Amino acid sequence: MDIERGDFIPPVATLLKLAGSLSVGMAYFFEEMDINEKISITRKGERVRIKRRPHHHEEGEVDYIYEALETKKPDKHMEPLLVEFQPVETSDMVFVNHEGEEFLYILEGTVEFRTDDRTEVLEPGDSLYFDSDINHSWRSLKGKTAKALGVIWNKV
Q: 125-152: buried (b, 16+ CB within 10 Å) or exposed (e) per residue?
């Protein structure tokens, strides 16, 4: 109910699960019209930025901001995102999992990637590809926001 009213902005993993349940791409939640062309261009000013409202931090809420880089093609299998990771304490990291695969290319800052049994530190120019059905979490290090280009392949 909170999501429907716009009171809660879900993390990407939740949107992917909802999209899978509805048999739609994640763009379904952002699109303004039904466009199904073979080529889709999203201009900089058309991108959709999703972030938590400052007064709306709940326990268990993922601490990153993402910008959907393509919102027009409803039947796509890849979700390209510009992601900003915030610095958080290790104890505040929230682990998520969902079907599909993820690719991340670090643009700036330092990102820590964690699974239940592995920790990796990624610097600008590093990339990571993994099966996203494993529990995983992110945070930026060094007290600054980090940015990355992410692509999620959803098995919808």
A: eeebeeebeeebbbbbeeeeebbbebeb
Sheet strands (E) in 74-145 = 78-85, 101-108, 111-115, 119-122, 127-131, 136-140
Query: pLDDT digits over 32-51, tens only?
Result: 555 567 888 888 888 888 76
Q: From residue 12, how far is each of 55, 99, 135 by CA, in Å?
A: 20, 12, 14
Residues shown for the chain: 156
Q: What tokens does 150 get?
A: 């992410």
Query: Residues near 19 by Cβ (< 8 Å), separated by ≥ 6?
Result: 25, 26, 28, 29, 154, 156
pTM: 0.72
Residue 14 has a pLDDT of 65
Which domains does the chain show, CATH number per domain? 2-153 (2.60.120.10)
Q: What angle do CA 10, 24, 97 make, to 5 degrees?
A: 45
User: How is residue 52 written in tokens?
Assistant: 């938590």
CA distance 130 to 56: 30
